[in-house]
Write a structure and sequence with these properties.
Blueprint (H helix, E strand, L loop, with lengths): L12 E5 L3 H13 L3 E5 L2 H11 L3 E5 L7 H9 L6 E5 L4 H10 L3 E4 L4 H15 L10 E3 L3 E4 L4 E4 L2 E2 L4 H12 L4 E3 H8 L8 H15 L9 E4 L3 E4 L2
Parallel strand pairs: 1-2, 1-3, 3-4, 4-5
Antiparallel strand pairs: 6-7, 7-8, 8-9, 10-12, 11-12
Helix pairs in contact: 2-3, 4-8, 6-8
Length: about 240
């Protein structure tokens, strides 16, 4: 297996959660070869315990676990951490993908999968969670209901910080940096999820719904996160 895209600069800790020993073994070997630190869990309860103890930088999660559904694990994690979660599953239906994304997953890879693709998506998930450096990151964008601090990567609504997942933040950041401009679906997908994306518009629907729920006064009649049907999305102050 070729090591495309290089190795992480410092040891990135990955938690692999899967009850298939051969998949866990393959992931551990490939990740360790690229200098990742890897912990593994074979069921949901162990996974939640390990996540709390080891504070991984990214999680690879199979949905079909012996003791609980993977979506429950995502919800359990999202109660206290924004760590990127990459779902690995044999479930192919769009509804199940949306359910996992809705619960707080950042990406979704269906089995069987190519190791290089999985590793590329894992790198992208880790990148999205890293603070961006330099440039105009000190910009503060204010609306009537909430404030977006691009430098601190924080959103404040009614005097309280709003917790966003790394993917929710990245999507918000792209839209806010293009205030008043239509950002096309393909451009959004590629900027937030990576260059191999372009048709997964259900991802955008799910994440825009999440942002509206968290930030709009009336999510069903959004003032700030505007859909241009069939084209893309626009952020308005």
């Amino acid at each position: 297996m070729s090591s495309t895209g290089g190795t992480p600069q410092s040891a990135t800790r990955v938690l692999v959660i899967d009850d298939e020993p051969q998949i866990v073994r393959a992931l551990v070997i490939n990740l360790q070869a690229r200098k990742y630190e890897v912990d593994a869990a074979h069921d949901g309860a162990t996974a939640l315990r390990l996540a709390a103890a080891r504070h991984p930088d990214v999680i690879v999660l199979d949905l079909g676990l012996p003791d609980m559904d993977g979506v429950e694990v995502i919800k359990g994690l999202r109660g206290w951490t924004r760590v990127p979660i990459l779902v690995l599953s044999a479930r192919h239906s769009s509804d199940e993908k949306v359910e996992a994304l809705d619960a707080g997953a950042d990406d979704y890879v269906t089995k069987p999968f190519g190791m290089d693709e999985l590793l590329a998506r894992l790198r992208a998930a880790v990148r999205r969670a890293e603070p961006a450096g330099g440039g105009e990151d000190d910009a503060l964008v204010e609306t009537a209901g909430f404030t977006v601090d691009l430098g601190a990567k924080k959103v404040n609504r009614d005097g309280k910080d709003v917790r966003l997942t790394p993917t929710e933040w990245h999507l918000l950041e792209v839209l806010v940096r293009n205030t008043g401009r239509l950002v096309g679906q393909k451009q959004l997908l590629q900027e937030v999820w990576g260059p191999s994306y372009g048709t997964e518009t259900n991802y955008l629907r799910v994440y825009m719904a999440q942002l509206r729920r968290k930030l709009e006064a009336d999510p069903s009649h959004p003032r700030h996160f505007i859909t241009e049907p069939g084209m893309g999305y626009r952020f308005e102050k």
